[in-house]
Description:
Largest sheet: 6 strands, mixed
Strand order of the largest sheet: 6-7-8-3-9-10
Number of domains: 2
Helix content: 25-40%
Shape: globular
Distance between the termini: 58 Å
CATH topology of the largest domain: Rossmann fold
CATH class of the largest domain: Alpha Beta
CATH superfamily of the largest domain: P-loop containing nucleotide triphosphate hydrolases
Number of strands: 12
Amino acid sequence: MNTTVVELTDVTFRRDGNPIIDGISLTVRAGEHWALLGPNGAGKSTLLGFCGALTHPTSGTVRILGEQLGRVELQKLRRSIGHVNPRHPLRSPLTVREVALTGLTGTVDFPMRWTPRPADIDAANDALEAVGMAAKAGRTWPTLSQGERGRTLIARALITAPRLLLLDEPTTGLDVAAREQLLHTIATLDRTLPDLASVLVTHHLEELPTSTSHALLIAGGRPVATGAADETITTANISEAFDHPVRVDRRGGRWSARSPVTQPVA
Length: 266
C-alpha cells in the first residue's frame, strides 16, 4: 500500500459560528492525483488550506506527511508541500528562473542578500525543464502569458522536490490553448514524478487533467461522493453536488459536463 500523504479525519471548520466544512474525511496516498470538486462556496479552498498546513480545523484531525497539525513546526512541514496559486501576487520583473528560485526561499520576491548556490540553480533549471519553460528561463514575469506564468509557478512549487502538490484552480484566467498546455504539463508529472501526490481544486470538469485518479465531491461543506475518479465523477453525483441536472461524459481521459439535451417544443 502506498504511503499516506494526507489524512483528514472528520474535520469541521466554522467561521463566525457558521459551518464551512462539516464532517469530511479524506486520505491521499503517494502517487494519487485527487480533484476537489463542488460549486462555489462549497468549502474546497478551506479543505485545500488544511492539506497545505495553512488552516487548522475547528475539530477533527489533519495529518500531513505523517505529522499532525497542532503538533508540528509548520514552516518545516510546508517546505515539503508545493502550492500553485494562479493569483501569485508578484509585481517585480523577476526572470522565470528567479521566480522558480523563490520556491526555495518561500517568498514572493527575490530575497535581498540571498545568493543561490550552484545546486539551487541546477534545481531551478531541472524544474523549468520539467514544465517546458527551460528555454524561457531568462524572460521576465511581466512579459509572460498567463499560461507561461502558470507553468512557471508549477516549477516554483516543484523546486523543493515536494511530496505533495496543491493546485488551486490553476487554469483560472487562461484561454483554451493555454489551459490545454497547462493541463498537459500537470498530467505529465504522473510520469516524471510517479511518487508525487497532488490535490487540485476546481469547479469545472473540463479543467481536470487526464492524470486525475481520485475525486472528492462536496456541497455545502459536506461530502457528496469520494473515491476513484471514474466511480465518483458521474452524472448522478455531479448533478447532486451542483444541485442541477448535468450530463457527464468522458472521452480521451477528459471529462465534460453539460445540461441534458431536451427536445424542442413542437
